[in-house]
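Protein in question reproduced for absentees:

***
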Amino acid sequence: MLKTTRHFACCSSLSAQDCLLRFLFLVALMTTVSPAKAQSFFTTLVIDPAVGVDRGSASRIQEVVKNTGFLTFSSDGAEEIGPYVLGLGAALPAVLGEPDQLDLVAVLSGPADDDRHELLAAGAAYRFNFPSTDMTLTLNSDFADARLGSATSLALGLEGHLSNVSLGIRREWAVQGASRSIASLELTGRDSQTQALGAVQEKESLRMLRTSFTYFSGRPFAFQKRHALSATKGFDDFGALPNTNQNGSAPEGSSDFFRVAAGAEMSLPISPRIYLSAGVAAQWSDDSLPISQRCGYQSND
């Protein structure tokens, strides 16, 4: 399938010591020879939880009715992250019984200048739908081991490690017609570390409780809208590194934080082959947030 995508993003911020207001505006125009894959939303990475936005995560796989495999290969990478990216995945319903599903993902990119891999990532997700209810229990985890692959970066030994684990519960219900709503509550742990010349340059451990509400309206391949609101509370306990951590991702970044994020999006079919999608997202916090929790746009999944 031939696909052309253009992204435009803008994000501004105040001082880390002031009230942080981060605003993202994204407009994407996607043209494809088949409309089946054209329509999607693009501010998901802002309002979705930490688990699910990193390579190797399986939490974005949808529910399936039979064993399904996925294979993707991309040659549009870069020297530092790997010019070629291979992705493998599997969605396995009814692993322990009818109402559950196991999802597995693996990602490999490279080669680096030393002909080794630059990114190795993997993830697993398990969901259990409680019978006769709209409730779903979810458990997601992923890890990534990355090394920048240019000759200069290899000489400096620039490497990174990331792991996520999340336990949550989600309820989805129909509102009217094709409209639906999703409410979720989850507890997440996120650990990351970067190294240069064998020494730790950044090390961060976050523990977060997050609640969110999302409303969808419209039908597939027709005009659609999505509105979302989330609130996240970070804790300086349960294994999180303290605010005095000198290797944090941001100066004076706090693991004990509170932030609110919201998004509004639309997707409009212009013709059978062209869809126009636009989204606006905003985030507010009165704390100095770690980099991973700040509003921004990235395309890493």
